[in-house]
Amino acid sequence: MSEPQLQLRQAVSSDLDSLVRLENLCFSDDRISRRSFRRFLDMPRDRIIVATLGDELVGYCLMLMHAATRLARIYSIAVSPKARGQGAGEKLVRAAERAAVEAGRIVMRLEVREDNGAAIGLYRRLGYRQFGTYRDYYEDHGDALRFERRILFYEPSRQFPVVPYYPQTTEFSCGPAALIMAMAALDEQQPVTTLEELKLWREATTIFMLAGHGGCGPHGLALAAWNRGFHASAWISKEGALFKDTVRNDDKKRVLELVHEGFLHDIGKTSIELRHDPLTLAGMEQALHDGRVPVILISTWQLNRSRVPHWVTVCAIDDQFVYLHDPEIDVDAGESVADKQYLPIERRIFDRMSRYGSVQPLQAAVIVGPKRDG
Questions:
Q1: What is the count of structural domains for the chain?
Q2: What is the model's pLDDT at position 158?
């Protein structure tokens, strides 16, 4: 007679006794009470996924989903000793991720004791990265490590251009990196190199911005795309030299104005469409449907609590999300290329992100179109 196979399903109210038994078997501290289990079972937004061997419940994963965010959280996971070695923990985590994605969640988070090497190894193997620590988190005053993993991924389709990913190689060249991605989506011969990135920066830089090297503005990026044979349009919500409020020195402000005047002079010799209106989400979506790729200036406050202006490439839009290629990868924080490709941002959050500055916020975008004839 064959051994029973591990099965997964959503918990039901009749599992209450078994859940309490398993909790008492696996944990001596920080146990979930019977009353709490009953409340979780009755809460339609949360999920308890259980693993069974035959008629016996041998594992569970409790996942919480807050109504106001797109985050899901694995609150607790337990596996009976008799089921260990069968991949029950991994299967429970993956089942929880699938349930969270079906509920429209973007990121899964969890906490784990800092001395639980086996669990930490599992989570790292499944693609989770540590992003913080909770001190004195457990009843015995032990610390918890905080892990997270992006779980919602966009599948490129024929509906929009397929945009290759290119990470910026300097802290100041997000604009050139975002533009390279847009141009490479429309022309397979477009160079995707650090040399091209730096050439674009030299052409499009505003010279000064904040501290250190200057960033790139929409006028310069549109010109750089045009000079490489692409159709281009720039959508800017205000006229005049941009980013003047990021520098205090009058001489630097004058340089910004001169660079701006130069860009306008050069744009006047082209057929670049210069619009002093914000580009709407509907406009971005229409551009993608037409085979054009928007490059958007955002405030990174919603992403990393920094107010630095930052360029990203919009790759797709659906009813819920705007999908971005973000060229900045924070390697020190454990980020990888996978974290920044087709990054899903809620439409309402993206609407806030696409405004830089608090007083008369700037909205800027460059739409790159196919190569021009001739």
A1: 2
A2: 82
